[in-house]
């Protein structure tokens, strides 16, 4: 059995997970955001009944491989805290931490829709976009602890030469991204970004859900917005597929509930990659909200496999 926690900006979900993916002793407590001792105390209390077992954590943040410090924008109390080392000192137990998007991809590769695939790039389409890359059943560790962040690099770029006003008005605008760079795919990809894109393309203020519904009924303005969205997203994800060789792309997050959108994005991606496939690459993820916990459990299975 494996002790697991999935730490988000709202809740810490905890469970004891069996190697076959069954969970028990599930708990959920609010995440202490501004109080590091309370944060540590919450984790210590959740694990206390199992004093000698390692703890595996999926977190909405990135652990620096050199310092162990967690960078989690939504959990300010973790700033400058080497969480695994701190928990080890407090409890004596081994602690392993991974990014929650990486854990999602790992869980889908072990227990979910991507079971049996060697190259798996998992995609999260939510308020923003995220991803994780799993190769041969393991997370691929990246520079600075970062892998799979396909939403953050400029894809919308300023024109290389000055354009007249009429031509300039047809360009998708350069929006500033939360990561500090302008023109990231994330600035036009997530739910809020799509709503902003819809306004720029001449639409009225609407939720992403309403835009999808209008698109499916053949609304011309929504169709224009989705054409732009699919063009950028299809190109971005085609790059990812060509580089990672992924044979399946599990898709999770709020926008993945729009089935027709996932199908349309799959078509847009497959029209842009180098290889041809007989079936869809993008598949709706199978594990839902359990993916973080189950991915954390896979970290424990991996440790055992190495022993
Ligand atoms: Zn960015």
Automatic annotation (TrEMBL):
It comes from the Bacteria. Its EC number is 2.7.1.59. Keywords: ATP-binding, Carbohydrate metabolism, Kinase, Metal-binding, Nucleotide-binding, Transferase, Zinc. PROSITE patterns: ROK (PS01125). It catalyses: N-acetyl-D-glucosamine + ATP = N-acetyl-D-glucosamine 6-phosphate + ADP + H(+). InterPro entries: ATPase_NBD (IPR043129), ROK (IPR000600), ROK_cs (IPR049874). One of its GO terms (molecular function) is metal ion binding. This is N-acetylglucosamine kinase. It comes from Gluconacetobacter tumulicola. The lineage of its organism: Bacteria, Pseudomonadati, Pseudomonadota, Alphaproteobacteria, Acetobacterales.
């Amino acid at each position: 059995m494996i002790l697991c926690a999935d730490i988000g900006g709202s809740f810490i979900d905890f469970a004891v997970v069996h190697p076959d993916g069954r969970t028990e002793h599930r708990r959920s407590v609010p995440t202490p955001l501004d109080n590091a001792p309370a944060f540590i105390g919450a984790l210590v209390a959740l694990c206390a009944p199992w004093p000698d077992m390692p703890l595996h954590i999926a977190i909405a943040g990135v652990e620096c491989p050199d310092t162990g410090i967690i960078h989690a924008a939504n959990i300010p109390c973790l700033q400058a805290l080497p969480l695994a080392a701190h928990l080890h000192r407090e409890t004596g137990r081994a602690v392993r931490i991974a990014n929650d998007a990486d854990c999602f991809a790992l869980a889908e590769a072990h227990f979910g829709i991507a079971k049996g695939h060697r190259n798996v790039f998992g995609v999260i389409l939510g308020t923003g976009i995220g991803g994780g890359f799993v190769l041969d059943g393991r997370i691929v560790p990246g520079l600075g602890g970062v892998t799979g962040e396909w939403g953050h690099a400029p894809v919308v770029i300023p024109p290389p030469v000055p354009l007249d006003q009429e031509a300039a008005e047809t360009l998708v605008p350069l929006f500033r991204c939360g990561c500090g760079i302008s023109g990231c795919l994330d600035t036009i990809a997530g739910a809020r970004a799509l709503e902003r894109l819809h306004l720029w393309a001449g639409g009225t203020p609407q939720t992403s859900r309403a835009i999808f519904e209008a698109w499916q009924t053949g609304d011309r303005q929504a169709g224009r917005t989705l054409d732009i969205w699919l063009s950028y997203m299809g190109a971005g994800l085609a790059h990812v597929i060509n580089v990672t060789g992924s044979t399946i792309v599990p898709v999770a997050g709020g926008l993945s509930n729009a089935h027709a959108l996932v199908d349309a994005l799959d078509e847009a991606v497959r029209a842009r990659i180098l290889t041809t496939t007989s079936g869809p690459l993008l598949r709706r993820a199978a594990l839902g909200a359990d993916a973080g916990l189950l991915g954390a459990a896979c970290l424990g299975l991996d440790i055992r496999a190495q022993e």
